[in-house]
Hints:
mainly alpha; 10 helices; elongated
Amino acid sequence: MQNHDQKKIKKTAPRWHRHPESRRQDILDAALTVFAEKGFYAAHTKEIARRAGITSGTSYLYFTSKEEILKTLVEESIAPQVSQLAQMAREFEGATPDLIRIVIRTLFMFLRNSDRAVLPKLIIAESGNFPELARHYKEHVTDRMLGMFGQIVQRGVERGEFRQTDPTHAGRLLFVPLMFTAIWRASFGAMDSEPFDYEGLIETHLDLMLRGLAMEQKRP
């Protein structure tokens, strides 16, 4: 009987007995779910703690506020993806059109499949009420992504692969469908009567952009 009770206690042990790093991740995952369901403004730390299976007091041992939680989600989910791609782009030795295909398809797969793709919508929706969060996202994600695309276009121009064009504007144009994919998926995806062809959108975007950037004699 004693062994049975011990096993029962072990199975039902509360989640606050888990490793601290696991608890921290539980809080981040729970917060993302609550933010996605209720929006950032209406989300409460008590609800986040409940979803994470811990007490409110325990959650404050890891994060002082829901603003800090959202900033951490940005810094540990999307920002690292951008940093890794930027590093890869700097070291890439192949043709610039191939580099653009790799970068955009990689970012697209992340935004298409990751639950973190809801973050851009959250930031945009709350930018008026929480401008500091919007600045944080812009600094850690948007500015880096736009800078990366601009540098890639400039690389293509300098190597004679692309015609002369403004790399800043071209970089923004490369970026736009990625943001569209994230926002559409988070806002309207569940309402589509037919599955949205995100892959088709991205491939059409790549085809049109690379044709437009190519030197006249090199256009397909």
